[in-house]
Amino acid sequence: MAIKKGDTDVHQSALGRLLQKGEPQDAAGLRTCIEALCDDDIAWQTAQTGDNQPWQVNDALTAELNARTLQRLPGDNWRVTSYSGLQQRGHGIAQDLMPRLDVDAAGVVSVVEEPTLTPHQFPRGASPGTFLHSLFEDLDFTQPVDPNWGTGKTGTRRL
């Protein structure tokens, strides 16, 4: 392989700026800069010339891989969200809005338990995501929600 004559343009790259301090140098100067970094932990070795043959996988060394079988059921106790503002703002307001339990009225009314929804049950696709994003853009999570706020929001967009 022929060595390039004259200054190289390595000094214009990020690595060249570190090696050559941004100064143009010829191939011998570049080699001197690299060798200056060599010590007990860093070594310089010139690569051997190739045989111009494409690399081939050695089939004898290729082991057959098998995937392990999942031994447990995955939990559904995590949350997917991209609204970092929800975490940064206070969450005390939400707790203030939660209904309080009336100890004296306990057992008077039978409670019908609704199925718990998870983030995985939210419809997929761009339209539902855009709809949800538009709702979060309009909400102020530091203030109580106006009971009439949702009127018109859910009927104006189609999933």
UniProtKB/TrEMBL annotation:
It is an enzyme of class 3 (hydrolase). Its EC number is 3.1.11.5. One of its GO terms (molecular function) is exodeoxyribonuclease V activity. This is Exonuclease V subunit beta. The gene is recB_3. It comes from the Bacteria. It comes from Escherichia coli. The keyword Hydrolase applies. The keyword Hydrolase applies. Keywords: Exonuclease, Hydrolase, Nuclease.
